[in-house]
Amino acid sequence: MDINKSGATFSSIVGIGVKLKKRSEEQKQEYLFLNRGVNAVCPIDLKEVVCKIDFNTPRIQVYPPNKGMPELRKAISEEYFGGLSDPDQISIVPGGMPAIDLTIQTLKLDKLYFADYFWGSYAKVAKIRGIETAHYSSPADLIRKIKAEPPERKVAVLICDPNNPVGDKMDDDNLVQWIRALNSLGAAVLFDSPYRRIYCGKEDPLFRQISALENVIILESFSKSMGLSGQRIGFIHSMNAEFNEELNIRILYSVNGVNAFAQELIYLLLTTEEGRKAVQNFRKKTAEEIGKNIAWLKEQGLLAKQLYTKNKPVGIFAVVNKSEEELLNYRIGSVSMNYFTSLKTSETASMSRICVSVPHETFVRFFAPVLSRVLEAQA
């Protein structure tokens, strides 16, 4: 039979994880899997929340509403948008990557922009959907490039903040100003921010500030901010009625609604005292350990400081000035920065992305031998 080839390749990050797991099993040694984008400081404690779910109800056992449970969409409006967003502008989707794919296949696009350092899946999803991609080095560079586009060209930009893979974050005032400028130019702005809510909560005004902009689409998941990657659930927000109508159709014929248990779980985490406490405890501990790990890398001179001249590192990722192979010698999993940029040079090959969301004690235990070797070389 004939196959409709996408032209995309399988995720290198997944392949690295398979290789590390095999080595660990064969050598019977502990490895530190910092190649993954998973918060591993601590699990979110769900025992006081899950017991509230009655699994023997139609709410759980019957097909969920296509756009998502109305109660959950209302709770998201309250939590993320201060109740100012219409729940009908929110669609529940099965995680962050499907949110990206559903969005770019719904929009009529000629070109999709993202940063010089970007999550590789952005390019691969665009490749599968037949959309041209381009890069920008700074907010000003992107503005210039979009202004230079022919008026008939339909363009969009994917903004990831805090960034994956670098882990840096723009000042919020500058970020909002930039998004407003892009919106006024008519570019579709896809704001992908799965790491932001680790560090803030309901008081955060950012989504309220950008959600009413006509060309802004907010993509969000609960994987990072609640430690629930396995539940595969997130949401898309847009004020554009035509976009939401077509998105609803595509959700129906691609996933036919998102897992009802995952929706009920998120609803309880957002609306019950026990749920809010579980989320708060998870975020507090995770943010504390991430902060310690980044500070330690900075103190020891292991951060790739050339990537942090404008914005400070926040996490959950950071880039270190050691190659993937160097770190592998110390049983540390990482991903070469060559996988995260089209600007492949000897410099990018000498750097690697690591996930810094692990217990600080474990982090230092694995990196201390790396540091010792560096100090010996400098002596």
In whole angstroms, the N-to-C terminal distance is: 63 Å
**CATH top level of the largest domain?**
Alpha Beta
Number of strands: 12
Oligomer: single chain
* Element order: H for helix, E for strand: HEHHHEHEHEHEHEHEEHHHEHEEHEH
Question: What is the mean pLDDT?
Answer: 94
So how many helices? 15
CATH superfamily of the largest domain: Type I PLP-dependent aspartate aminotransferase-like (Major domain)
Structural class: alpha/beta
Number of domains: 2
Report on the biggest sheet: 7 strands, mixed
CATH topology of the largest domain: Aspartate Aminotransferase, domain 2
Tell the overall outline. globular
Low-confidence stretches: none
- The helix content, as a percent range, equals 40-55%
Strand order of the largest sheet: 2-8-7-6-5-3-4
Short description:
By secondary structure, the protein is of the alpha/beta class. Helices cover 43% and strands 13% of the residues.
Overview of the molecule:
The structure is a single chain. By secondary structure, the chain is an alpha/beta fold. It has two domains: 12-44 and 280-378, Aspartate Aminotransferase, domain 1 (Alpha-Beta Complex), CATH 3.90.1150; 47-274, 3-Layer(aba) Sandwich (Aspartate Aminotransferase, domain 2). It has 15 helices and twelve strands. The chain has helices at residues 12-27, 47-50, 58-61, 70-81, 96-106, 120-128, 139-147, 172-184, 206-210, 241-254, 260-271, 273-299, 324-328, 346-349, 360-378; strands at 32-33, 90-93, 111-115, 132-136, 155-160, 188-192, 216-221, 234-238, 317-320, 332-333, 335-336, 352-355. It has a seven-stranded mixed sheet with strand order 2-8-7-6-5-3-4, with helices on both faces. β6, α9 (206-210) and β7 (216-221) form a beta-alpha-beta unit. α5 packs across α6 (120-128). It is globular, with a radius of gyration of 21 Å. The relative contact order is 0.17.
